[in-house]
Every structure is written in structure tokens, then in C-alpha cells.
Amino acid sequence: MVLSRRLQADLCIVALSAIWGSTFVVIKWALDDISPFLYITLRFAAASIPLCFLVRKGAIGGDTRGATLIGGLVTGSLLFTGFAFQTVGIQYTTAARSAFITGMYVIFTPLLSILLRLRRPSINSILGACLALAGLHLLTDPTAGGGGFGRGEFLTLLCAIAFSGHLIAVDHYTRRHDRAAIAFLQVAVVAFLAVGPALLFEQTRFVPTGGLWAALAVTSILGTALAFWLLNMVQAWTSPTRAAIIFAAEPVFAALTSWLVEGEVLRGLALVGAGLILSGMLMAEIGPFGRRQSAPA
Fold this sequence. Notes:
- By secondary structure, this protein is mostly helical.
- It has one domain.
- The protein contains twelve helices and no strands.
- It is globular.
């Protein structure tokens, strides 16, 4: 059986959701041994090494006016902004709260799409995003344990806005330029941009524990190099709104990881939330309000 490109894209994005969802706890642990921007620098510098071997000769700088390079700079800058806010913010909040607020890019993506007039999302996509957002809220129950909306939550909210812009930018540039080149450039740009803050704005902390090396290996190879290569390969086969809906499953995997690693047990509302997330994904695909906007098959 030959899978359509759209279905291949969906399966890859589900896999990415599992990878990224599992790294919330990993990153939280890693930051006990390393300062945030140094962590980002090492993570993305290591990830850029395997990606550079996937770029074909002449893919960067061989097009008119360096359009591919510009695409890498734009997507990389948005990606750096998102990870900077998320990595700093997670120090001041819980992994579950971080997962919930980061997941708000599910709702920001279609709103930004309308604002930028890049692609008009269907009613099904909008309703699916709303269901997924409600599910994210119940899944992580951010009000449990108090704490309010503090510095960590605010920084992570800015991260979600940046990630939604990144998802739209990746969709735009991978449809026009070499996908492997865009994947490599954006990861390399993040590593480059993180060097300055690491040297100027934070007190360097690096304790070379086994846990830290394991975290760097998992997040750089699986969570960055493989993940962004896959995202750039398949993003042109779907829409940013559709991708954002599927990425709503990310906190589900984050909750499962917390349960497996830390013994955190899902409560009733969390299970309801997981069901709403899945309902949102289905609404975006087979909702009742006419046909959804098609993606390339």
C-alpha cells in the first residue's frame, strides 16, 4: 500500500509530537546542570553537524538573491526566539505548565495565518484548535498547586507565539526552497544566536554529569536534527494549521513521559483533556462544516 504524502506527513508529525513531548522532563532535568543559553548552543550546534551532510551542493547561495539563506535566517530566528523563551521559562514553572502553554501555538497558528493572509483556515480547523486548546488545559490542569501566572508562564506564552510563527514560516519557505538546506540553516542559526546571550547575559553553569550528556544526546539528535529534518521534509505536504492540530498531541506524550519516568498519575480531568485533543485532531480532518482546506497530496 502506497501512503499519500498527506498521510506520510501526518504520521511524521505524530512521531515528532512524541519526541518533543518526551523532552519536557528531559530539558527540565538538564537545566539543573547547565545554564539555559549554553544548553541551547550545545544542543543546536551538535544537531547542525549531521544536518549539514544532508544538504546538496549548491543548495545554499545558489539561488537568486540568496533566497534560501534568507529562509534559513527567518525560520532560525523564530525558532531561536521560541526555544530561548521556553528554555528560560521552564526554570520558573513546571514541565506540565510549560507543555500546556507551549501548546497554545495550536490556536495561535490559524490566527496568525489569517493575520498574515497566507492561508485561510477552515471552520473545522478553527473548531479543532479550540477543542485541542481546551484539552490541553484539562490535560495539564495548570491551576493545580497554585502559583498563578508568573514569569515562567509569561515567557512560555511568548515561546508559543514564536513557535506558531516558525511553523508558518517553515510552511512558506519549504514550498519554495531546498528543504534540507532550510532544516540545516535554521538549526545552525539557533546555535549561532544563542552564543551571544550565553556569553553576555547569564552566569555560565556546566556540570558534566551522565544525565546532562544523555539529555544533550536525546534533544540534539532526536529532538532537533531528526525532528527538524522530518518537519522540513513533510511540511510542504500539509498546512500549518493541520500540523498545529496534530502537534496538540505533544502534551499527551509529555504526560505519559512524566508518568513513566516520575510516576505522575493522570487524573480524571487529564484523561478528559487527552480525549478532547484527539477530538480536535479529528474535527480538523472530518468535521461537519464542509470540506477542510486541502493540502498537497
